[in-house]
């Protein structure tokens, strides 16, 4: 008698390990480290313009409304909205 894989019986694909499952709890949140990486990769000009070494801390503090040390989606939307306004102002002033 062969294994389930050999015989085609059972639902063997359900047993494929899914390492990301363990991270589901914080998959949609940014830690301070991840926020810093995001700012460095996507908004490096912003960090360069900040002479303040605590710039990431300050951004984190501003965004982390519930104070859990992470930026969830709703908190992240505030950053996106602020960037949208800033870009809009920039392009209006430079048009
Ligand atoms: Ca938070």
Automatic annotation (TrEMBL):
Location of the EF-hand domain: 51-86
Matching InterPro entries: EF-hand-dom_pair, EF_Hand_1_Ca_BS, EF_hand_dom, S100/CaBP7/8-like_CS, S100_Ca-bd_sub
Region (Disordered): 1-24
Keyword Isomerase (UniProt): no
Keywords from the UniProt entry: Calcium, Metal-binding, Repeat
Pfam family, one: EF-hand_1
Molecular function (Gene Ontology), one example: calcium ion binding
UniProt name for this protein: Protein S100
Gene: S100A1
């Amino acid at each position: 008698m062969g294994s389930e894989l050999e015989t085609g019986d059972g639902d063997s694909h359900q047993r494929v390990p899914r390492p990301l499952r363990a991270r589901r709890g914080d998959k949609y949140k940014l830690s301070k480290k991840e926020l810093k990486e995001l700012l460095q990769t996507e908004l490096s000009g912003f960090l360069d313009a900040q002479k303040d070494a605590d710039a990431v801390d300050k951004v984190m503090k501003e965004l982390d409304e519930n104070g859990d040390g992470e930026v969830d989606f709703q908190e992240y939307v505030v950053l996106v909205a602020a960037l949208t306004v800033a870009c809009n102002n920039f392009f209006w002033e430079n048009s």
